[in-house]
Amino acid sequence: MSAPPADDELHLRVDDDPAALPREAWNALLAASAQPTPFMRLEYLQALHGSGSAVAQTGWQPQFLSLWRGRQQENAELLAACPAYLKAHSYGEYVFDWAWADAYRRHGLDYYPKLLVAVPFTPVPGSRLLARDAASRRLLMQGLQTLAERLDLSSAHLLFGDAADFAVAQAQGWMQREGVQFHWRNREPQPYADFTDFLASLQREKRKKIQQEQRRVREAGIVYEVLQGAQITAADWDFFHRCYQLTYRAHHSTPYLRREFFAAMQSEMAEYWLLFVAQRMVDGVAQRVAASLIALDPHTRRAYGRYWGALEPIPCLHFDACYYQPLSWCITQGYRAFEGGAQGEHKMARGLLPVGTGSSHWLAHPDFSQAVNDFLAREGQAMRDYTDELSEHQPFKQGA
Description:
It is a single chain. The protein folds into two domains: 10-180 and 356-391, Gcn5-related N-acetyltransferase (GNAT) (Aminopeptidase); 187-335, Aminopeptidase, CATH 3.40.630. 36% of the residues lie in helices and 26% in strands. The chain contains eleven helices and 15 strands. The chain has helices spanning 23-31, 42-50, 98-106, 134-150, 163-171, 195-200, 204-219, 234-250, 259-268, 317-333, 366-391, and strands spanning 10-15, 60-62, 64-69, 77-82, 84-87, 114-117, 130-131, 155-159, 175-185, 222-228, 273-282, 285-297, 302-310, 337-342, 353-363. An eleven-stranded mixed β-sheet has the order 2-5-6-8-15-9-14-13-12-11-10. A four-stranded antiparallel β-sheet has the order 1-3-4-7, with helices on both faces. A hairpin with a 7-residue loop joins strand 3 and strand 4 (77-82). It is globular and about 65 Å long. This is N-acetyltransferase. It comes from Roseateles asaccharophilus. InterPro entries: Acyl_CoA_acyltransferase (IPR016181), FemAB-like (IPR007434).
């Protein structure tokens, strides 16, 4: 695909394997972005592909788009790039467009494949259109729509981007969609001293509920082993993956991530991971029963709840392993925020507050585009009303 003729030094490239892209140059663009996250590092995206987790056979065909200056490969300069996929379904996205796909089907039209700019299975807000400057981001955005049009796709979508991503998408006429997640933020300007200090800031009934849940976990004999970075061995990853698989199967679902992906995380991105292993003492022997995996960004001091699993059901263990233990760790380590993942207003009672998220959408069919635009206007107002209502139910004491 060629860049606009006004500047024949620039050209756009599409790669069906992220391994074809230069890791150092990609990550440099990410580091300079407004909202970097570990999940946009090229190592992470390459591991998703290399492990067979996000490949054409699983409905994620890579079409990574990049903008370059110069055509000599050894001298070419990477100006902009984004992870893009041809999607054969809408699983693993966390921005739900099943109703749109069904409407296409009922009218005898194909909704899939569609073009998706996102990090597979990872609903973490952050920069998606990595670019040296605004002009490069604009050309990359134009390239995405051109790619969708040349492939005669129904639509193109950009999920969980940052403000600069959404601004350039909106300038190109893409529709905007609003969402909400629940994130914990450390207190400012005086951070919490410890988890007890955090609990003291909550309303009495919220604090008592958490204390009761933690007491039930302790009464079950649970203690935690906390492993970070290189401390997480292959055997630890094996145990976590076993728990992860069992929990998906218990919910009659198939796990997205293969063991090979976590092997790549151990070898390529170990410093970005924190593992809480729940153990129970039986006849004086510690038996592992569950694990919670947290992603870390040491640079921005943010933590991300990612995956969990258990060998057996233990009351309240999920909340303790996935929220209370990570929050306590974040406070101790001086982290600024903890993102609890997609959905779940029950997280508010645990000190995670609503945060707006967004996505951008382009539909080729003009009638469907207008119908979706009307729907998004109504949905957006409903989402704002919902967020306002949530804000009236703060879990914190006044002045805390």
